[in-house]
Amino acid sequence: MRALLRHHYGESAREDQESAVALFTAALAKGPPLGMIHMERGHARVLLGDWNGALEDETAALRIRPGSVAALENRATARAALGDAAGALADWDEAVARSPGNHKVLVDRAVCKLNRGDADGALADNEAALRLVPDLPEALTNRASIRLARGDVAGALEDSERALRGSPGLAAARVNRGRARERLGDLDGALGDYDEALRLAPEDPVALVCRADLRMIQGDPRGAIADTEAALAARPGDPWALTTRGEARRRLGEHAGAVEDASEVIRLDPRSAVAYSNRAIARLDAGDARGAPEDATAALERRPAHPEALHTRGLARRRLGDAEGALADFEAAVRARPAYPEALVNRGDLRHDRGDVEGAIADATAALELRPGWPVALNNRGFAKQSAGDLEGAIADYEAALRSDPRIPELHANLGNARRALGDPRGAAEAYREFLRLAPAHAWVPGIRQSLAGCEPRPEGLPEAASRPR
Questions:
Q1: Which residues contact 323 (CB under 8 A, 6 or more apart)?
Q2: pLDDT over 50 (residue 3)
Q3: pTM value?
Q4: What residue ranges define each of the domains in the chain, with the CATH number in brackets?
Q5: Nearest Cα residue to 52 out of 29, 70, 74
Q6: The Cα angle at residue 460 between residues 459 and 463, in degrees rounded to 5
């Protein structure tokens, strides 16, 4: 199971392997079984992806030639592909014991260990392989994957660069370099690496999902869906691809599809806290405020203090009228992840509702330190400042929010209210009219029309129409 070292064969290469299988089959039919023939046919079957046939051949070869390192490696590859990771590891252990200087076996065993969650063992095998063959591209690529998982982005980038110097056509090294570049903020460089990896290996599911994740960052959910569907065609049921497709569907408002993808990940791995949290978010977006907290709670049972699950459950509880429970969840989300702008803004909103205006301003300010110019946080801080009597500060925040996104109608309404309260009817009327232009069917329209009427010039002696700022 060389997950990072998969080879891609064209039609001519496949035909060669099929011819080899036919040749070895004819040879076995003519004479007594020979271990070498079984082993070679098994190897051809490995290259064709005929895992059951390969397993049968290599087991037969090992009965005739016990301890054959090549047969052990081929059988280990077949076992791993069939989901027998324990059996695969046993075969690679024996192969390493019989041939401790075989760097190829060490690299393959490292992949098996990594897939079983033994990152330390995988790292040790890759290090051993690199002692035997310095700058071995496959070992460097595998070590880069481990370094990425551990947050050593600089080390992963260095390993990937070294691997590509030795093997420019190694798609997995391109993917790892792309992942490192992405984490360092070089999105264009990352996209170039993913594109090149897919030119080298067009059906590589890891490269496809990495590019899909990057497309989500770049605001292209439809492109992300195209990549994840290609990944799922190559590797049906891949949880990573399903998770990314579900998030892309949610961004596009395809709530049923997002719930469906998260549900499939849960079916594949009922222990996944992330999948339950994602389904909770999708259900909340779909208006299922009762199903969302159930899923969020299930996520928290699997991973206590999961920030997204706490935040989602808080949103659902608020919609259900449980302000105390919502505030408790937002508090816990911020404790679990202090740099969580969404949780800070929502906690601040509830603090404002409870009369804690200073706390609301502090939370919105903290969110803006994490995400400068965020219109939601600017609006909430402006509203809190307005409640505290700081009308000029409120107007400054509303105007800053509109510079970030002038399409949000509620911002224009709030700006109009603050300007009117400050004694600027002309500026208030301008903001109200923009609100009505952007949202003619909004629920606030009757009140805004009334406020606008109070800002219009009146003939001398006509009393001012009664109105109440929102």
A1: 317, 350, 353, 354
A2: no
A3: 0.78
A4: 1-134 (1.25.40.10), 412-470 (no CATH)
A5: 74
A6: 85
